Amino acid sequence: DVKVTQSSRYLVKRTGEKVFLECVQDMDHENMFWYRQDPGLGLRLIYFSYDVKMKEKGDIPEGYSVSREKKERFSLILESASTNQTSMYLCASSFGAPGLAGGGYEQFFGPGTRLTVL
Amino acid sequence: GDSVTQMEGPVTLSEEAFLTINCTYTATGYPSLFWYVQYPGEGLQLLLKATKADDKGSNKGFEATYRKETTSFHLEKGSVQVSDSAVYFCALPINTGNQFYFGTGTSLTVIP
């Protein structure tokens, strides 16, 4: 059974703290993604990684950074948490296919981490 | 630019009612189209997809037909169950297919 796991389901942090969200996939996928999900806004891409040590900014990278030192693991870092980063964070992974226009590889999602910043 | 527009919710239906959730897209060419579902407390999972015009994707009693004439990919189910209560997302691959445009999601609640 394919699996994407996230380190925590619920997390409560204080403003200014450094926060690490971890994601691990066991499908040998090239691509990994971090999204945040907010009511009325749907999913917004924060960062995307297509290979180890490679990353691309998504739609809302401000206030976040990422790390991918191993293929199976993708970490999201909030350098100094703020209350407006209170949200549901979803990690996903997929096979990579650069140049495959219009195809679309299924993304597999973890269960999410609900982060509250006080 | 490419985008998807999805019917806003929330939608509340009685069990066995007919469901339609509208999705329209703007895209260059003819990309694949997807529906994802998010059950309470879970991440998203693929519900169905269609890879070319006039294709019909189907799964778990849900169907969607890729209609290029109306640039639509509406999700339908003839008889919903309480267990179908979830949030549904329409999705369109971006460029090389590694990323997606996701709709804003439509929340469905089915009451007994």
Description of the structure:
- The complex is a heterodimer of chains A (118) and B (112).
- In chain A, strands 2, 4, 5, 6, 9, 10 and 11 form a seven-stranded mixed β-sheet that branches.
- With 118 residues, chain A is mainly beta.
- The mean pLDDT of chain A is 91.
- Chain A has no helices and eleven strands.
- Chain B has 112 residues and is mainly beta.
- Chain B has strands at 3-6, 11-14, 19-21, 23-26, 33-38, 44-50, 56-59, 62-65, 75-77, 86-94, 99-102, 106-111.
- The chains are: A mainly beta (118), B mainly beta (112).
- The A-B interface holds A 4, 31, 33, 40-43, 45, 48, 50, 58, 90-92, 94, 96-112 and B 27, 29-32, 34, 41-46, 49, 51, 89, 91-93, 95-100, 102-105.
Tell me briefly what this model is.
The complex is a heterodimer of chains A (118) and B (112). Chain A is mostly beta strands.
Please indicate the percent range of residues of chain A in DSSP E strands (runs of 2 or more). over 45%
The quaternary structure here is heterodimer
- How would you sum up the major sheet of chain A? 7 strands, mixed
Helix-strand sequence of chain B: EEEEEEEEEEEE
**Shape type of chain A:** globular
Q: Which structural class matches the secondary elements of chain B?
A: mainly beta
Mean pLDDT of chain A: 91
- The average pLDDT score of chain B comes to 92
Query: Which secondary-structure class do the elements of chain A indicate?
Result: mainly beta
Largest interface, Cβ cutoff 8 Å: A-B, 32 and 28 residues
Fold blueprint:
The complex is a heterodimer of chains A (118) and B (112).
Chain A: E1 4-6, E2 10-13, E3 19-25, E4 31-38, E5 42-51, E6 54-57, E7 64-70, E8 73-78, E9 87-94, E10 108-109, E11 113-117
Parallel strand pairs in A: 2-11
Antiparallel strand pairs in A: 1-3, 3-8, 4-5, 4-9, 5-6, 7-8, 9-10, 9-11
Chain B: E1 3-6, E2 11-14, E3 19-21, E4 23-26, E5 33-38, E6 44-50, E7 56-59, E8 62-65, E9 75-77, E10 86-94, E11 99-102, E12 106-111
Parallel strand pairs in B: 2-12
Antiparallel strand pairs in B: 1-4, 3-9, 5-6, 5-10, 7-8, 8-9, 10-11, 10-12
